[in-house]
């Protein structure tokens, strides 16, 4: 998994500064419209223009519900939170 810097944003749920992203595949970099999971609280967000994080719209939530990559990302974030306790 490739880690990269992104412009600093704040998690829309827990307020944690988010300035990094990790793709599920080595060659992935975030693009506007891609989703992200906060590793600190598990909140789902969307990269907007400029790669700033925002809350998803209802339509976006419906369109990605059940996405295998989203399920995997959520599980990885949950494991990270458990390991940090």
What overall form do the CA principal axes indicate?
globular
> What string, H for helix and E for strand, traces the elements in order?
EEEEEHH
Largest sheet: 3 strands, antiparallel
The order of strands across the largest sheet is 3-4-5
Distance between the termini: 23 Å
Average of pLDDT: 90
Please tell me the total number of domains: 1
The overall strand count is 5
Contiguous low-pLDDT stretches (5 residues minimum) are none
Determine the strand fraction and express it as a percent band.
Answer: 25-35%
**Structural class of the secondary elements?**
alpha+beta
Structural account:
This protein is an alpha+beta fold. About 30% of the residues lie in helices and about 25% in strands.
Question: Key features?
Answer:
single chain, 85 residues, alpha+beta, two-stranded antiparallel ribbon, 2 helices
What's the arrangement of secondary structure elements?
Blueprint (H helix, E strand, L loop, with lengths): L2 E8 L6 E6 L12 E3 L6 E4 L5 E2 L3 H7 L3 H17 L1
Antiparallel strand pairs: 1-2, 3-4, 4-5
Q: In a few lines, what is going on in this structure?
A:
The chain is of the alpha+beta class.
């Amino acid at each position: 998994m490739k880690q990269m810097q992104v412009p600093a944003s704040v998690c829309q749920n827990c307020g944690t500064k988010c300035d990094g992203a990790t793709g599920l595949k080595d060659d992935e970099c975030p693009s506007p419209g891609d989703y992200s999971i906060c590793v600190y609280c598990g909140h789902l967000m969307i990269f907007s223009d400029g790669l700033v994080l925002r809350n998803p719209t209802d339509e976006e939530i419906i369109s990605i519900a059940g996405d295998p990559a989203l399920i995997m990302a959520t599980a990885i974030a949950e494991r990270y939170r458990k390991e940090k306790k």
